[in-house]
Every structure is written in C-alpha cells, then in structure tokens.
Amino acid sequence: MQDATNVSRYKKVGENRYRETTGLYYEDFNVGDVFEHRPGKTILDVDNVW
Length: 50
Hints:
Elements: E1 9-14, E2 17-21
C-alpha cells in the first residue's frame, strides 16, 4: 500500500499551471490493501446490486 502522503499529485496543464489530483487510480491498488476511514463500513455483496 502506498504511503498516505503520496496520494496527492500535480499534473501540468499549461505553462506555469498545475492541477492537483487526489485519490488513487485503479493501477495504484494492490490485492490485500486495507484503507481505514471514518465512519467505517463493511462492503457486502448487496452493495454491488443495482
């Protein structure tokens, strides 16, 4: 799992212009990663039903 300080990135969008992006991309996740947040919630199969 990546260090929480590496979650924020800057993308150059022009001369002397940058856009901050936060969060992780799909490729950044690894099997077995655990993310703790509040309030906690256990994801169930029913949460994936449309």
